[in-house]
Amino acid sequence: MALHCGKTCRQYLLHLAHDNVDFRLPEIKALLSLRGRQCEPSETFREKSPFWRLHGLSEEDVRSVMSRTVCAKSVFELWGHGRTATELKSSLMEYPRESMATFLQDQSTYKINVYTFNKTLLFNDRIKKIDALDYLPFQGKVNLKDPDHIFCLFEDYGLDPNDIPEEPLYLYFGRWISDGQRELIRSHSVKKRHFIGNTSMDAGLSFIMANHAKVKPLDLVYDPFVGTGSLLVACSHFGAYVCGTDIDYNTIHGVGKASRKNQKWRGPDENIRANLRQYGTEFSYVDVMVSDASKPVWRRAELFDAIITDPPYGIRESTRRTGSHKEVTSPPDDFSGESHVPVSMAYHLSDIFADLLNFAANHLAIGGRLVYWLPVYRPEYCEEMVPLHPCLTLISNCEQTLSSHTSRRLITMEKIKQPEVTDALAQLADPRFSPYQGHNSFREKYFSGITKKNEKGNDKPATKEGEGS
Ligand SMILES: C[S@@+](CC[C@H](N)C(=O)[O-])C[C@H]1O[C@@H](n2cnc3c(N)ncnc32)[C@H](O)[C@@H]1O
Asked: How far is the CA of 396 from the centre of ligand 1 (A)?
Protein backbone atom coordinates (compact mmCIF):
# COMPACT_ATOMS: atom_id res chain seq x y z
CA MET A 1 0.00 0.00 0.00
CA ALA A 2 2.59 2.54 -1.07
CA LEU A 3 2.43 5.92 -2.72
CA HIS A 4 5.44 6.52 -4.95
CA CYS A 5 6.50 10.13 -5.09
CA GLY A 6 10.08 10.02 -6.31
CA LYS A 7 13.29 8.05 -6.47
CA THR A 8 14.78 8.30 -2.96
CA CYS A 9 14.40 5.13 -0.92
CA ARG A 10 13.47 6.69 2.43
CA GLN A 11 10.02 5.61 3.54
CA TYR A 12 7.38 7.19 5.74
CA LEU A 13 4.26 5.71 7.26
CA LEU A 14 1.13 7.80 7.17
CA HIS A 15 -1.46 6.94 9.79
CA LEU A 16 -4.84 8.04 8.46
CA ALA A 17 -8.11 8.80 10.20
CA HIS A 18 -10.96 6.51 9.33
CA ASP A 19 -13.61 9.14 8.62
CA ASN A 20 -13.84 10.76 5.18
CA VAL A 21 -12.03 7.80 3.62
CA ASP A 22 -12.89 8.85 0.07
CA PHE A 23 -11.33 12.30 0.48
CA ARG A 24 -7.95 11.19 1.77
CA LEU A 25 -6.00 10.37 -1.37
CA PRO A 26 -6.97 13.57 -3.24
CA GLU A 27 -6.09 15.56 -0.12
CA ILE A 28 -2.63 14.04 0.27
CA LYS A 29 -1.98 14.30 -3.48
CA ALA A 30 -3.05 17.97 -3.52
CA LEU A 31 -0.82 18.80 -0.55
CA LEU A 32 2.14 17.03 -2.11
CA SER A 33 1.54 18.79 -5.40
CA LEU A 34 1.76 22.11 -3.52
CA ARG A 35 5.37 20.98 -2.90
CA GLY A 36 5.80 20.08 -6.57
CA ARG A 37 5.56 16.34 -5.80
CA GLN A 38 3.43 14.05 -7.92
CA CYS A 39 2.45 10.72 -6.33
CA GLU A 40 1.15 7.53 -7.86
CA PRO A 41 -0.23 4.61 -5.84
CA SER A 42 1.67 1.32 -6.25
CA GLU A 43 -0.13 -1.84 -7.41
CA THR A 44 -0.57 -3.02 -3.84
CA PHE A 45 -1.91 0.34 -2.63
CA ARG A 46 -5.10 -0.09 -0.61
CA GLU A 47 -6.91 3.22 -0.43
CA LYS A 48 -9.12 2.22 2.50
CA SER A 49 -6.23 1.09 4.70
CA PRO A 50 -5.42 3.29 7.72
CA PHE A 51 -1.71 2.98 6.89
CA TRP A 52 -0.04 4.21 3.73
CA ARG A 53 3.64 3.93 2.97
CA LEU A 54 5.10 6.99 1.27
CA HIS A 55 8.20 6.61 -0.89
CA GLY A 56 10.60 9.14 -2.24
CA LEU A 57 9.84 12.15 -0.07
CA SER A 58 11.98 14.33 2.14
CA GLU A 59 11.16 14.98 5.78
CA GLU A 60 10.28 18.57 4.78
CA ASP A 61 7.76 17.20 2.27
CA VAL A 62 5.97 15.09 4.83
CA ARG A 63 6.11 17.82 7.48
CA SER A 64 4.53 20.22 5.02
CA VAL A 65 1.71 17.74 4.30
CA MET A 66 1.15 17.27 8.03
CA SER A 67 0.94 21.04 8.56
CA ARG A 68 -2.23 21.00 6.45
CA THR A 69 -3.91 17.59 6.43
CA VAL A 70 -7.08 16.86 8.37
CA CYS A 71 -7.30 13.33 6.90
CA ALA A 72 -4.01 12.00 8.32
CA LYS A 73 -3.43 11.67 12.05
CA SER A 74 0.35 11.40 12.08
CA VAL A 75 3.43 10.46 10.11
CA PHE A 76 6.35 8.22 11.08
CA GLU A 77 9.76 7.55 9.64
CA LEU A 78 9.31 3.88 8.73
CA TRP A 79 12.08 1.67 10.14
CA GLY A 80 10.56 -1.71 9.35
CA HIS A 81 7.44 -3.55 8.29
CA GLY A 82 6.22 -7.05 7.49
CA ARG A 83 3.36 -9.53 7.49
CA THR A 84 4.56 -11.24 10.68
CA ALA A 85 6.61 -10.31 13.73
CA THR A 86 9.50 -12.28 12.19
CA GLU A 87 9.28 -10.35 8.93
CA LEU A 88 9.12 -7.10 10.88
CA LYS A 89 12.25 -8.09 12.79
CA SER A 90 14.21 -8.89 9.60
CA SER A 91 13.07 -5.65 8.07
CA LEU A 92 14.13 -3.69 11.17
CA MET A 93 17.49 -5.46 11.25
CA GLU A 94 18.09 -4.24 7.70
CA TYR A 95 17.41 -0.60 8.59
CA PRO A 96 20.79 1.20 8.70
CA ARG A 97 22.06 1.37 12.29
CA GLU A 98 23.63 4.76 11.66
CA SER A 99 20.18 6.15 10.77
CA MET A 100 18.81 4.79 14.05
CA ALA A 101 21.73 5.83 16.23
CA THR A 102 20.81 9.49 16.81
CA PHE A 103 17.47 8.51 18.23
CA LEU A 104 18.62 5.59 20.39
CA GLN A 105 21.68 7.05 22.12
CA ASP A 106 22.05 6.89 25.89
CA GLN A 107 21.66 10.65 26.41
CA SER A 108 18.13 10.61 25.00
CA THR A 109 14.80 9.47 26.40
CA TYR A 110 12.12 7.61 24.52
CA LYS A 111 8.81 5.82 24.65
CA ILE A 112 7.21 3.15 22.50
CA ASN A 113 3.46 3.16 21.77
CA VAL A 114 1.51 0.19 20.45
CA TYR A 115 -1.37 1.04 18.13
CA THR A 116 -3.72 -1.66 16.91
CA PHE A 117 -6.29 -1.15 14.17
CA ASN A 118 -9.53 -3.19 14.38
CA LYS A 119 -8.52 -4.93 17.63
CA THR A 120 -8.12 -3.88 21.26
CA LEU A 121 -5.21 -5.42 23.16
CA LEU A 122 -4.97 -5.87 26.90
CA PHE A 123 -2.36 -3.75 28.66
CA ASN A 124 -0.17 -6.79 29.41
CA ASP A 125 -0.25 -7.89 25.79
CA ARG A 126 0.92 -4.44 24.75
CA ILE A 127 3.81 -4.62 27.16
CA LYS A 128 4.75 -8.05 25.75
CA LYS A 129 4.79 -6.60 22.23
CA ILE A 130 7.11 -3.81 23.38
CA ASP A 131 9.38 -6.27 25.19
CA ALA A 132 9.58 -8.37 22.04
CA LEU A 133 11.32 -5.43 20.34
CA ASP A 134 14.38 -5.90 22.60
CA TYR A 135 16.54 -6.64 19.55
CA LEU A 136 16.50 -2.88 18.80
CA PRO A 137 19.59 -1.21 20.32
CA PHE A 138 17.83 1.32 22.59
CA GLN A 139 20.44 2.95 24.86
CA GLY A 140 18.47 5.79 26.41
CA LYS A 141 15.99 5.85 29.28
CA VAL A 142 12.25 5.38 29.00
CA ASN A 143 10.26 8.53 29.70
CA LEU A 144 6.52 8.15 29.26
CA LYS A 145 5.59 11.77 29.98
CA ASP A 146 7.97 13.87 27.94
CA PRO A 147 10.31 11.71 25.86
CA ASP A 148 12.79 13.07 23.32
CA HIS A 149 11.71 10.47 20.78
CA ILE A 150 8.48 8.55 20.28
CA PHE A 151 8.27 5.24 18.46
CA CYS A 152 5.22 3.28 17.49
CA LEU A 153 4.48 -0.34 16.71
CA PHE A 154 1.39 -0.55 14.49
CA GLU A 155 -0.63 -3.70 14.07
CA ASP A 156 -3.21 -3.83 11.31
CA TYR A 157 -6.00 -6.38 11.89
CA GLY A 158 -7.83 -5.56 8.66
CA LEU A 159 -10.94 -3.57 7.94
CA ASP A 160 -13.69 -6.06 8.81
CA PRO A 161 -14.92 -5.71 12.41
CA ASN A 162 -16.83 -8.99 11.95
CA ASP A 163 -13.76 -10.92 10.94
CA ILE A 164 -10.88 -9.95 13.22
CA PRO A 165 -7.90 -12.27 12.77
CA GLU A 166 -6.02 -13.68 15.75
CA GLU A 167 -2.70 -12.31 14.47
CA PRO A 168 -2.23 -8.96 12.74
CA LEU A 169 -2.29 -8.93 8.94
CA TYR A 170 0.54 -6.42 8.82
CA LEU A 171 2.98 -4.74 11.22
CA TYR A 172 4.99 -1.53 11.07
CA PHE A 173 7.51 0.14 13.33
CA GLY A 174 8.59 3.76 13.00
CA ARG A 175 9.75 6.98 14.60
CA TRP A 176 7.12 9.66 15.09
CA ILE A 177 7.74 12.81 13.07
CA SER A 178 4.63 14.93 13.38
CA ASP A 179 0.86 15.02 13.74
CA GLY A 180 -1.70 16.29 11.24
CA GLN A 181 -4.27 18.99 11.83
CA ARG A 182 -7.16 16.91 13.19
CA GLU A 183 -7.37 19.37 16.08
CA LEU A 184 -8.80 21.95 13.63
CA ILE A 185 -11.99 19.88 13.42
CA ARG A 186 -12.60 20.50 17.11
CA SER A 187 -11.28 24.06 17.36
CA HIS A 188 -13.34 25.19 14.34
CA SER A 189 -16.47 23.17 15.11
CA VAL A 190 -19.62 24.85 13.83
CA LYS A 191 -21.15 24.22 17.27
CA LYS A 192 -18.82 26.81 18.80
CA ARG A 193 -18.89 29.26 15.88
CA HIS A 194 -20.17 32.81 16.33
CA PHE A 195 -22.29 32.99 13.14
CA ILE A 196 -23.94 29.88 11.74
CA GLY A 197 -26.87 28.92 9.53
CA ASN A 198 -28.86 25.80 8.73
CA THR A 199 -26.42 24.78 6.03
CA SER A 200 -23.09 25.82 7.57
CA MET A 201 -20.45 23.43 6.27
CA ASP A 202 -18.85 21.06 8.77
CA ALA A 203 -15.35 22.19 9.80
CA GLY A 204 -13.51 19.01 8.74
CA LEU A 205 -15.05 19.05 5.26
CA SER A 206 -14.33 22.77 4.87
CA PHE A 207 -10.62 22.15 5.52
CA ILE A 208 -10.64 19.18 3.17
CA MET A 209 -12.16 21.39 0.45
CA ALA A 210 -9.52 24.06 1.02
CA ASN A 211 -6.83 21.37 0.75
CA HIS A 212 -8.31 19.85 -2.42
CA ALA A 213 -8.29 23.38 -3.84
CA LYS A 214 -4.58 23.76 -2.94
CA VAL A 215 -5.34 27.08 -1.25
CA LYS A 216 -2.13 28.77 -0.15
CA PRO A 217 -1.06 32.00 1.56
CA LEU A 218 -1.95 35.21 -0.34
CA ASP A 219 -4.33 33.42 -2.74
CA LEU A 220 -7.64 35.11 -3.45
CA VAL A 221 -10.48 32.64 -2.89
CA TYR A 222 -14.12 33.17 -3.82
CA ASP A 223 -17.32 31.39 -2.75
CA PRO A 224 -20.31 32.34 -4.96
CA PHE A 225 -22.82 30.65 -2.56
CA VAL A 226 -21.08 31.84 0.58
CA GLY A 227 -23.88 31.43 3.16
CA THR A 228 -22.31 31.85 6.61
CA GLY A 229 -18.81 31.64 5.15
CA SER A 230 -17.61 28.31 6.56
CA LEU A 231 -15.46 27.70 3.50
CA LEU A 232 -13.94 31.16 3.80
CA VAL A 233 -13.05 30.40 7.42
CA ALA A 234 -11.06 27.33 6.32
CA CYS A 235 -9.32 29.10 3.43
CA SER A 236 -8.37 32.07 5.59
CA HIS A 237 -6.81 29.64 8.08
CA PHE A 238 -4.41 28.66 5.29
CA GLY A 239 -3.53 32.31 4.68
CA ALA A 240 -5.75 33.12 1.69
CA TYR A 241 -7.69 36.34 1.18
CA VAL A 242 -11.37 35.49 0.97
CA CYS A 243 -14.56 36.92 -0.50
CA GLY A 244 -18.01 35.66 -1.35
CA THR A 245 -21.51 36.40 -2.54
CA ASP A 246 -24.95 35.11 -1.68
CA ILE A 247 -28.42 35.94 -2.90
CA ASP A 248 -29.73 36.09 0.65
CA TYR A 249 -29.61 39.61 2.12
CA ASN A 250 -30.15 38.42 5.69
CA THR A 251 -27.24 35.98 5.54
CA ILE A 252 -24.83 38.49 4.03
CA HIS A 253 -25.81 41.18 6.53
CA GLY A 254 -26.13 38.79 9.49
CA VAL A 255 -29.70 39.80 10.32
CA GLY A 256 -33.00 37.99 10.59
CA LYS A 257 -33.85 34.73 12.31
CA ALA A 258 -31.15 32.85 14.15
CA SER A 259 -30.42 29.18 13.41
CA ARG A 260 -29.44 28.34 16.97
CA LYS A 261 -31.91 26.74 19.34
CA ASN A 262 -33.06 29.10 22.13
CA GLN A 263 -32.25 32.18 20.05
CA LYS A 264 -34.91 33.91 18.00
CA TRP A 265 -33.01 36.66 16.15
CA ARG A 266 -29.40 37.01 15.11
CA GLY A 267 -27.48 39.22 17.50
CA PRO A 268 -25.32 42.21 16.55
CA ASP A 269 -22.11 41.31 14.75
CA GLU A 270 -23.28 37.84 13.73
CA ASN A 271 -21.65 37.85 10.32
CA ILE A 272 -18.82 36.31 8.31
CA ARG A 273 -16.24 38.93 9.28
CA ALA A 274 -16.91 38.15 12.96
CA ASN A 275 -16.34 34.43 12.23
CA LEU A 276 -12.91 35.19 10.82
CA ARG A 277 -12.21 37.44 13.81
CA GLN A 278 -13.10 34.54 16.11
CA TYR A 279 -10.29 32.49 14.54
CA GLY A 280 -7.78 35.33 14.26
CA THR A 281 -7.91 35.67 10.46
CA GLU A 282 -9.92 38.87 10.06
CA PHE A 283 -7.05 40.41 8.08
CA SER A 284 -7.85 37.89 5.32
CA TYR A 285 -11.41 39.15 4.93
CA VAL A 286 -11.90 40.98 1.65
CA ASP A 287 -15.69 41.33 1.63
CA VAL A 288 -18.99 39.66 0.91
CA MET A 289 -21.93 41.05 -0.99
CA VAL A 290 -25.48 40.24 -2.02
CA SER A 291 -25.41 38.91 -5.55
CA ASP A 292 -27.08 36.29 -7.70
CA ALA A 293 -24.63 33.67 -8.98
CA SER A 294 -26.60 33.36 -12.21
CA LYS A 295 -25.85 36.98 -13.13
CA PRO A 296 -22.52 38.20 -14.54
CA VAL A 297 -21.45 40.89 -12.08
CA TRP A 298 -17.69 40.44 -12.27
CA ARG A 299 -15.29 42.08 -14.69
CA ARG A 300 -14.13 39.51 -17.25
CA ALA A 301 -10.67 38.59 -15.94
CA GLU A 302 -8.77 35.89 -14.10
CA LEU A 303 -9.66 37.16 -10.66
CA PHE A 304 -9.42 34.15 -8.37
CA ASP A 305 -6.86 31.52 -7.41
CA ALA A 306 -9.57 29.16 -6.20
CA ILE A 307 -13.35 28.94 -6.19
CA ILE A 308 -14.75 26.80 -3.40
CA THR A 309 -18.44 26.41 -2.89
CA ASP A 310 -21.40 24.43 -1.68
CA PRO A 311 -24.20 25.33 -4.11
CA PRO A 312 -27.81 25.13 -2.96
CA TYR A 313 -29.63 22.03 -4.01
CA GLY A 314 -33.00 22.83 -2.69
CA ILE A 315 -33.29 20.48 0.26
CA ARG A 316 -32.75 22.85 3.16
CA GLU A 317 -32.77 26.12 1.25
CA SER A 318 -34.34 27.10 -2.02
CA THR A 319 -32.46 27.26 -5.30
CA ARG A 320 -33.55 30.67 -6.50
CA ARG A 321 -32.23 33.26 -8.84
CA THR A 322 -33.37 36.74 -9.60
CA GLY A 323 -35.51 37.26 -12.65
CA SER A 324 -38.10 39.64 -13.88
CA HIS A 325 -41.75 39.37 -14.72
CA LYS A 326 -40.65 39.79 -18.34
CA GLU A 327 -38.99 36.37 -18.15
CA VAL A 328 -42.13 34.85 -16.73
CA THR A 329 -44.86 36.41 -18.89
CA SER A 330 -44.72 39.23 -21.44
CA PRO A 331 -46.43 42.37 -20.23
CA PRO A 332 -49.60 43.37 -22.09
CA ASP A 333 -49.06 45.72 -25.04
CA ASP A 334 -50.71 48.67 -23.27
CA PHE A 335 -48.56 48.16 -20.12
CA SER A 336 -46.93 51.46 -19.15
CA GLY A 337 -45.65 50.87 -15.60
CA GLU A 338 -42.23 49.82 -14.20
CA SER A 339 -41.08 47.04 -16.50
CA HIS A 340 -38.33 45.53 -14.31
CA VAL A 341 -39.70 44.20 -11.09
CA PRO A 342 -37.16 41.70 -9.67
CA VAL A 343 -38.78 38.50 -8.62
CA SER A 344 -37.28 35.23 -7.69
CA MET A 345 -37.41 32.35 -10.14
CA ALA A 346 -36.39 28.70 -9.90
CA TYR A 347 -32.64 28.20 -10.45
CA HIS A 348 -32.38 24.72 -11.92
CA LEU A 349 -29.55 22.56 -10.65
CA SER A 350 -28.28 21.86 -14.16
CA ASP A 351 -27.99 25.63 -14.71
CA ILE A 352 -26.29 26.15 -11.34
CA PHE A 353 -23.50 23.73 -12.29
CA ALA A 354 -23.22 24.97 -15.89
CA ASP A 355 -22.98 28.57 -14.65
CA LEU A 356 -20.46 27.58 -12.00
CA LEU A 357 -18.15 25.81 -14.44
CA ASN A 358 -18.40 28.66 -16.96
CA PHE A 359 -17.69 31.14 -14.21
CA ALA A 360 -14.63 29.16 -13.10
CA ALA A 361 -13.40 28.88 -16.70
CA ASN A 362 -13.60 32.65 -17.08
CA HIS A 363 -12.46 33.85 -13.66
CA LEU A 364 -9.92 31.34 -12.34
CA ALA A 365 -6.22 31.84 -12.89
CA ILE A 366 -4.60 29.08 -14.96
CA GLY A 367 -3.85 26.21 -12.55
CA GLY A 368 -6.50 27.52 -10.14
CA ARG A 369 -9.00 25.02 -8.78
CA LEU A 370 -12.77 24.82 -8.55
CA VAL A 371 -14.01 22.66 -5.67
CA TYR A 372 -17.74 22.10 -5.21
CA TRP A 373 -20.39 19.61 -4.10
CA LEU A 374 -22.58 17.84 -6.63
CA PRO A 375 -25.68 16.12 -5.20
CA VAL A 376 -26.54 12.79 -6.81
CA TYR A 377 -29.28 10.22 -6.69
CA ARG A 378 -27.21 7.09 -6.04
CA PRO A 379 -29.26 4.47 -7.91
CA GLU A 380 -28.84 6.44 -11.13
CA TYR A 381 -25.38 7.93 -10.64
CA CYS A 382 -22.65 7.28 -13.18
CA GLU A 383 -19.44 9.18 -13.77
CA GLU A 384 -20.73 10.64 -17.03
CA MET A 385 -23.14 12.81 -15.02
CA VAL A 386 -20.32 14.93 -13.63
CA PRO A 387 -20.37 18.21 -15.58
CA LEU A 388 -17.28 18.94 -17.64
CA HIS A 389 -15.87 22.04 -19.33
CA PRO A 390 -13.23 22.30 -22.07
CA CYS A 391 -11.15 24.67 -19.91
CA LEU A 392 -11.28 22.57 -16.73
CA THR A 393 -9.79 19.17 -16.09
CA LEU A 394 -11.33 16.84 -13.52
CA ILE A 395 -8.87 16.18 -10.68
CA SER A 396 -10.98 14.17 -8.24
CA ASN A 397 -14.52 13.07 -7.52
CA CYS A 398 -15.18 11.78 -3.99
CA GLU A 399 -18.42 10.50 -2.54
CA GLN A 400 -20.00 11.40 0.76
CA THR A 401 -23.04 9.25 1.38
CA LEU A 402 -26.04 11.12 2.78
CA SER A 403 -28.62 8.33 2.78
CA SER A 404 -29.20 4.96 1.11
CA HIS A 405 -30.32 6.71 -2.07
CA THR A 406 -28.55 10.08 -2.04
CA SER A 407 -25.04 11.31 -1.75
CA ARG A 408 -23.02 14.34 -2.67
CA ARG A 409 -19.78 14.23 -4.54
CA LEU A 410 -16.89 16.56 -3.89
CA ILE A 411 -15.70 17.58 -7.34
CA THR A 412 -12.29 19.17 -7.88
CA MET A 413 -11.36 20.67 -11.25
CA GLU A 414 -8.34 22.63 -12.41
CA LYS A 415 -8.27 25.35 -15.04
CA ILE A 416 -5.98 24.29 -17.88
CA LYS A 417 -6.64 26.91 -20.55
CA GLN A 418 -8.33 30.19 -21.31
CA PRO A 419 -11.83 30.08 -22.79
CA GLU A 420 -11.93 30.37 -26.58
CA VAL A 421 -14.78 30.89 -29.03
CA THR A 422 -14.37 27.28 -30.22
CA ASP A 423 -15.18 26.02 -26.71
CA ALA A 424 -18.82 26.86 -27.33
CA LEU A 425 -18.73 24.49 -30.33
CA ALA A 426 -17.09 21.79 -28.23
CA GLN A 427 -19.82 22.27 -25.67
CA LEU A 428 -22.44 21.69 -28.37
CA ALA A 429 -20.67 18.62 -29.76
CA ASP A 430 -20.02 16.78 -26.51
CA PRO A 431 -23.04 16.09 -24.26
CA ARG A 432 -20.76 16.04 -21.19
CA PHE A 433 -20.05 19.73 -21.73
CA SER A 434 -23.79 20.53 -21.83
CA PRO A 435 -25.84 20.97 -18.68
CA TYR A 436 -27.11 17.56 -17.60
CA GLN A 437 -30.87 17.94 -17.10
CA GLY A 438 -31.00 14.88 -14.83
CA HIS A 439 -29.61 16.96 -11.96
CA ASN A 440 -32.84 18.95 -11.91
CA SER A 441 -34.87 16.05 -10.56
CA PHE A 442 -32.53 15.54 -7.56
CA ARG A 443 -34.95 17.27 -5.18
CA GLU A 444 -37.95 15.15 -6.23
CA LYS A 445 -35.89 11.96 -6.01
CA TYR A 446 -34.50 12.97 -2.63
CA PHE A 447 -38.00 13.45 -1.23
CA SER A 448 -39.46 10.45 -3.05
CA GLY A 449 -36.83 8.29 -1.33
CA ILE A 450 -37.79 9.80 2.01
CA THR A 451 -41.47 9.22 1.40
CA LYS A 452 -40.82 5.58 0.59
CA LYS A 453 -38.66 5.28 3.69
CA ASN A 454 -41.27 6.91 5.92
CA GLU A 455 -43.97 4.68 4.44
CA LYS A 456 -41.91 1.73 5.64
CA GLY A 457 -41.95 3.31 9.11
CA ASN A 458 -38.30 4.25 9.16
CA ASP A 459 -36.72 7.32 10.74
CA LYS A 460 -36.34 10.65 9.06
CA PRO A 461 -33.33 10.95 6.74
CA ALA A 462 -30.05 11.96 8.31
CA THR A 463 -29.64 15.72 8.45
CA LYS A 464 -26.34 15.97 10.21
CA GLU A 465 -25.11 19.43 11.05
CA GLY A 466 -23.48 20.93 8.02
CA GLU A 467 -24.43 18.08 5.73
CA GLY A 468 -26.47 18.68 2.67
CA SER A 469 -28.66 21.60 2.07
C1 LIG B 1 -25.61 25.25 0.91
S2 LIG B 1 -25.71 26.94 1.23
C3 LIG B 1 -24.05 27.41 1.47
C4 LIG B 1 -23.64 27.23 2.89
C5 LIG B 1 -22.27 27.76 3.17
N6 LIG B 1 -21.24 26.90 2.60
C7 LIG B 1 -22.07 27.90 4.67
O8 LIG B 1 -21.14 27.30 5.19
O9 LIG B 1 -22.86 28.56 5.33
C10 LIG B 1 -26.12 27.63 -0.31
C11 LIG B 1 -26.27 29.12 -0.31
O12 LIG B 1 -26.57 29.52 -1.64
C13 LIG B 1 -27.37 30.67 -1.57
N14 LIG B 1 -28.03 30.84 -2.89
C15 LIG B 1 -29.15 30.24 -3.36
N16 LIG B 1 -29.39 30.66 -4.62
C17 LIG B 1 -28.41 31.54 -4.95
C18 LIG B 1 -28.11 32.33 -6.09
N19 LIG B 1 -28.88 32.29 -7.16
N20 LIG B 1 -27.00 33.10 -6.07
C21 LIG B 1 -26.20 33.17 -4.96
N22 LIG B 1 -26.46 32.49 -3.83
C23 LIG B 1 -27.54 31.67 -3.82
C24 LIG B 1 -28.32 30.40 -0.40
O25 LIG B 1 -28.82 31.62 0.10
C26 LIG B 1 -27.38 29.66 0.56
O27 LIG B 1 -26.84 30.57 1.49
From this structure: 23
Q: What is the mean pLDDT of residues 415-439?
A: 80
Q: Where exactly are the structural domains of the chain? A: 2-181, 186-329+339-455
Nearest ligand 1 atom to the CA of 316 is: 1
- Kindly report, residue by residue over 204-236, the tens digit of the pLDDT: 999 999 999 999 999 999 999 999 999 999 999
Contact between 173 and 152 (Cβ < 8 Å):
yes
- Best probe residue, ligand 1, of 199, 307, 442 (max atoms within 8 Å of C-beta): 199
List pLDDT tens digits, range 139-187.
999 999 999 999 999 999 999 999 999 999 999 999 999 999 999 999 9
Q: Are 182 and 446 in contact (CB under 8 A)?
A: no
Query: Does the beta carbon of 271 sit less than 6 angstroms from any atom of ligand 1?
Result: no
What would the CATH number be for the domain defined by 2-181? 3.30.2130.30
Q: Does ligand 1 come within 6 angstroms of the Cβ of 234?
A: no
The helix (run of H) or strand (run of E) holding residue 210 is helix 203-212
Distance 348 CA to ligand 1 centre (A): 14
Instruction: Give the right CATH number for 186-329+339-455 from 3.40.50.150, 3.40.50.2300, 3.20.20.60, 3.10.290.10.
Output: 3.40.50.150
The response to whether residue 74 sits with its C-beta less than 6 Å from ligand 1 reads no
Residue 4: the pLDDT is 67
How confident is residue 419, by pLDDT bands cut at 50, 70 and 90?
very high
CA distance linking residue 360 with residue 308, whole number of Å: 10
Using CA atoms, how far residue 151 sits from 116, 176, 180, 334, in Å, is 14, 6, 17, 84
Share of the chain above pLDDT 90, in %: 73
CA 227 to ligand 1 center in whole angstroms? 5
Q: Is residue 85 within a helix (H) or strand (E), and if so which, with residue range?
A: helix 85-94
Q: Find the 46 Cα to ligand 1 centroid distance in Å.
A: 36
